[in-house]
Amino acid sequence: MTLTLTDICFGWPEQPVLIDIQHFEISRGEKVFLYGPSGSGKSTLLNLISGIQQPLSGCVSALGTSFGALNSRQRDRFRADHLGLIFQQFNLLPYLSVQDNVLLPCGFSDLRRKRVIDTYGSEVAGATALLERLGLGSLMDREVARLSIGQQQRVAAARALIGEPELIIADEPTSALDTDSRARFIELLSEQSELSNSSLLFVSHDLSLASHFDRSIALTDLNQGGQN
Amino acid sequence: MLLLRIAAKSLINRRTSVLLTIISIAVSVALLLGVEKIRDQAKQSFTNTISGTDLIVGARSGSVQLLLYSVFRIGNASNNITWQSYQDIAGHSKVAWTIPISLGDSHRGYRVVGTNTDYFKHYKYGRKQPLVFAQGLAFSALHDVVLGAEVAAKLGYRMGDELVVAHGTGNASFAKHEDQPFRVTGILAPTGTPVDRALYVSLEAIEAIHIDWQAGTYLPGSGGSEPLETRNLQPQAITAIMVGLKSKVATFQLQRAVNNYRKEPLLAILPGVALQELWSMLNVAENAMLVISACVVLSGLFGMLTVLLSGLNERRREMAILRSVGARPAHIYCLLVMETCLLVSMGILLGTGLLFVALAAGLSFLETEFGLYLQLTWLSLHELGLLGIIFIAGLCTGLIPGYRAYRYSLADGMTIRI
Ligand SMILES: Nc1ncnc2c1ncn2[C@@H]1O[C@H](COP(=O)(O)OP(=O)(O)O)[C@@H](O)[C@H]1O
Ligand SMILES: [Mg+2]
């Protein structure tokens, strides 16, 4: 199992319980679509899954490791090693080059750096190969601010994918894109996660995207919290 | 090292506000160092005013007062020394040389010193440097005058020019010894000491110009009509004596002898000790300057803090991204502190550079305008220590935005509500 949630309960400080999920899991290589209206707690759930926030009760476990057993430092390390994240917009550090942005996770995870070097010989070669596969080969040294939003999101995808983490989490990565590039982006992302043998958890409020995935779930069905 | 690179690039990305911050720190650093340097060198040139003189003797008063009027030519003597006392001291078996000094007249704000040619032979300053003539020679005729470097330069006198001495020491002294003009026969090389700011004539000349003066008023003819050439111009009294001894060992012995002199109340001081005493009185002004420049540095650091804190909110996205790729909150903390360290180090480097450029450019100005002789020396240990303190203060300042960012990144996680 790549990810298992059991009986988790969470609310932001001084707010009612937002997340209350009895059971949710993603198996190895699976591509899951999670949808829900905005404000329903999707991003909050992703914070729990990536170990940045801790549930009030219950257990998040990924790749057989229970987050409850780790301290915050170990959870941060775990995230660096095993998770790739993509957000809705402004994913990139504007003052780093495309290549440096892609290679950021390798700076925080020895495991992912080692994987890149083992496969491609060097970090730069790994970044180049990945960007080429995402159709960005010519943009290696381009300033981030001069990329289109679609290109920026593909760079973010490359960063999530580098070093082949076991789980890719995408939080509404396409909501700033037009319909055409939306489909193309999802195609690319699922293709590349398959190649790197990663599971994919794709979150969106747009139900029309569900067809691209193995399985889709509504957060409102899954979640008992935040219904008031 | 990745963090350091990120910090540097992030700073470059915000170059306008960063540059302004660096400049404001640099200016405050340059100011602090400059004040320190001037303070240090002023102290040095102050203690270098006189050297090689073992004792200064004057009428009994305060030791600082004696030092002030005899060496710095500030203020006036309350009393004179009789010629007889001078002879007794000059004839003492332990005494190698003496310089008599007679004060009381001036020329356009500069003091006129009556002395003899021993002044040019024995007076030493700095590291026992003797006085050197830039032009001409010591006075030999009665109405010869030797000018200090600053007097010649500021008043534009050249060799052979004539000038008139005024009675009294105020700049606005109207009573002039116009009947006896002096001719410039020598100009001293600059020393950076009060020597530069005086005119030198013989004791006999002082006596000569005062012939018709009775109790401070000019009564023509009151001194008799005998021509100057045939008169006895040996003065009755002088103002102070500088004494050099054959052996330093005898210093205290002679000092005691002078202080216990029976025929009139005298005071002998050790110039070095009196200089220290005087400098410690100036300490207040000196420390005030230091406090002011420290405040400037502090305000520079506050400026930096303002810039860093006000920019922080816009950078929460940046931190969330770093968190998502595996950075720990501690990393975020470090990143902010590193940024501050970079800012402060750049400020310190730039400020030091600024100071040296300013000093190199302003050296001759300070010299001619203020008689302040600065040397372009590499930073002293003390100054490096000051820079170290500034750096540490900057680092402590950086802890504040660091902590803020740390709290933000804990509260925000990867989601930012803006
Ligand atoms: N960092 C945070 N601190 C406090 N409350 C938050 C934070 N992030 C989200 N929330 C709250 O949680 C609720 C759900 O937000 P979110 O998980 O972002 O929803 P979604 O991603 O589905 O749009 C909102 O009411 C929001 O105010
Ligand atoms: Mg969201």
Task: For the structure shown, list the relevant keywords.
heterodimer, A: 228 residues, alpha/beta, Rossmann fold, 5-stranded parallel beta sheet, 8 helices, B: alpha+beta, 2 domains, 11-stranded mixed beta sheet, two-stranded antiparallel sheet, elongated, binds adenosine-5'-diphosphate, binds magnesium ion
Describe this structure in words.
The complex is a heterodimer of chains A (228) and B (418). With 228 residues, chain A is of the alpha/beta class. Chain A is built from eight helices and nine strands. Chain A has helices at 42-49, 72-82, 98-108, 110-120, 123-133, 149-161, 179-195, 219-222; strands at 3-10, 19-26, 31-35, 57-62, 65-66, 83-86, 167-171, 199-204, 215-218. In chain A, strands 6-7-8-3-9 form a five-stranded parallel sheet, with helices on both faces. Chain A is globular and about 45 Å long. The relative contact order of chain A is 0.22. Chain B is an alpha+beta fold and 418 residues long. Chain B has two domains: 2-46 and 283-414, no CATH class; 55-269, no CATH class. In chain B, helix 2 (15-47) crosses helix 11. The mean pLDDT of chain B is 87. The interface between A and B is medium-sized, with 30 and 23 residues. The structure holds adenosine-5'-diphosphate (ADP) and magnesium ion. Adenosine-5'-diphosphate (ADP) sits between chains A (12, 18, 36, 38-44) and B (411-413, 415, 417).
Bound ligand species: adenosine-5'-diphosphate, magnesium ion
Read across the widest sheet of chain A, the strand sequence of neighbours is: 6-7-8-3-9
Bin the helical content of chain A: 25-40%
Alpha-carbon Rg of chain B, integer = 31 Å
Average pLDDT metric of chain B: 87
- Number of helical segments with 4 or more residues of chain A: 8
Give the name of the CATH architecture of chain A. Answer: 3-Layer(aba) Sandwich
- What is the helix content of chain B? 40-55%
Mean pLDDT of chain A, to the nearest integer, reads 89
Q: Give the N-terminus to C-terminus distance of chain B in angstroms.
A: 31 Å
Strand content of chain A: 15-25%
Please give the largest β-sheet of chain B. Answer: 11 strands, mixed
Count helical runs of chain B.
12
Seen as an oligomer or otherwise, the chain set is heterodimer
Envelope shape of chain B: elongated
By DSSP, the count of extended strands of chain B is 17
